Amino acid sequence: MSPVAFNAVVPAAGAGARMGGTTPKTYLPLAGGTVIEWALAPLLAHPGLQRLVVALAPDDTRFAGLQAASDARLLSVTGGASRAASVAAGLGALGSAVDGPVLVHDGARPCLSGDEIERLLAFASDPAGALLAVPVRDTLKRADGDGHVAATEDRSGLWRALTPQLFHGGTLRDALGDATDSAITDEASAMERAGYAPRLVEGDPANIKITRPHDLPLAEAVLAMRGGQLR
Length: 231
Ligand code: C5P
Known about the structure:
The protein has 231 residues and is of the alpha/beta class. It has a single domain (6-226), classed as Spore Coat Polysaccharide Biosynthesis Protein SpsA, Chain A, CATH 3.90.550. It has helices at 35-44, 83-93, 114-121, 169-176, 187-193, 215-226, and strands spanning 6-12, 29-30, 33-34, 49-56, 74-78, 101-104, 130-135, 140-143, 149-153, 159-168, 199-202. The strands form 3 sheets. The protein has a 7-stranded mixed sheet with strand order 5-4-1-6-10-7-11, sandwiched between helices. Strands 2-3 form a two-stranded antiparallel sheet. The chain has a two-stranded antiparallel sheet with strand order 8-9. A hairpin with a 2-residue loop joins strand 2 and strand 3 (33-34). The chain is globular. It binds cytidine-5'-monophosphate. Residues 11-14, 26, 55, 79-83, 86, 106-108, 209, 211 line the site of cytidine-5'-monophosphate.
């Protein structure tokens, strides 16, 4: 069976303020490469990938120097002030290819597995789209603003959204609209606002987003355990 053909958008235009330091988190060193190279690798390795658009910060000088930048399927655009605006810019660069399945993956998620991509692509023709997510397993506490517990929340039916998220590109573009709403922290929430109910596809809890400095050794351990190589 031939692989599902898809395009991809990778937002990588954020500054990553929670990491501290001056290097954006996507360019931090990780397992013989950088965070973004590991985030791109499983997408570039997939035989169904047609085109991949990376949204970069306006002052980015690093991406062009990466080996992945020379891949003929890859192009870059300038991202926007929010993640949603960066994704919208990426969709715009797809041209007519936006009219098909588009997978959106954070440039700061270096531990995506090929198996997760496969599970998501099984829903490529679902008009509501699909996203990787993991069920919440811990007990949830609501804070009172003063470091104390105000309440214990019911965790049943709650999932944490990961990426990739997969939608028909044109539908997602319309759902993102002018992409200025700060409540839109993932593509699925834009689709939900437009009246769709995207499918939850169970992902791997190891598919973490690099947000804090201690996330890097965790990602390093996951990649070492898998034994994959960047080049
Ligand atoms: O900030 P956060 O961790 O949610 O960012 C997730 C992804 O979105 C990162 O890869 C980041 O570079 C990207 N992003 C972007 N444009 C922005 C803000 C974040 O492409 N304006």
